[in-house]
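Researcher: Sequence recovery benchmark, item below. Answer with residues only.
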């Protein structure tokens, strides 16, 4: 622990200037941890998938919808990103969930208009699971039949024979 009586103004101790009050330092550490935690959960949406009926690309729109809906949710929040193709082109629109130390999911046949709520519901479930592993009975009913892959986190394959 930092001894305030021995600090020299302007000197850097433990990565922080010694003149910074402990509350400010604690707040900065908390913010940093929240950022790390938040950025470790990602929703990745294909930006190139075309709707099978309209032929429109709806990935960017779905990202905007998800960001908006997730901003109303309690922490942890997700980084929502796009990528050009996740090799699920036969089942557009594809959406992946990924986090450090957790199983990765790839969903396909996602409809921007009707599935965004189910994806947010799944995000809440995913965030609550220590290893991200869940079965079809736990996932939102709207996502039934839309899962293309469930890949265990590195080193978890043998533990998860469920
Ligand atoms: S174009 Fe979307 S998965 Fe390939």
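Model:
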């Amino acid at each position: 622990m930092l001894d305030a009586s021995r600090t020299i103004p302007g000197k850097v101790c433990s990565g922080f200037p010694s003149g910074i009050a402990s509350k400010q330092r604690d707040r900065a550490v908390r913010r940093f941890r929240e950022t790390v935690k938040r950025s470790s959960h990602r929703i990745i949406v294909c930006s190139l998938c075309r709707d099978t009926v309209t032929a429109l690309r709806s990935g960017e729109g779905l990202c905007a919808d998800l960001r908006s809906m997730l901003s109303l949710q309690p922490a942890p929040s997700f980084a929502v990103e796009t990528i050009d193709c996740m090799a699920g082109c036969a089942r557009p629109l594809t959406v992946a969930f990924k986090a450090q130390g957790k199983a990765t999911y790839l969903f396909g046949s996602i409809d921007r208009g009707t599935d965004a709520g189910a994806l947010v519901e799944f995000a809440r479930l995913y965030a609550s699971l220590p290893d991200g592993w869940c079965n079809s009975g736990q996932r939102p009913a709207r996502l039934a039949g839309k899962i293309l892959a469930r890949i265990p986190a590195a080193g978890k394959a043998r533990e998860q024979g469920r």
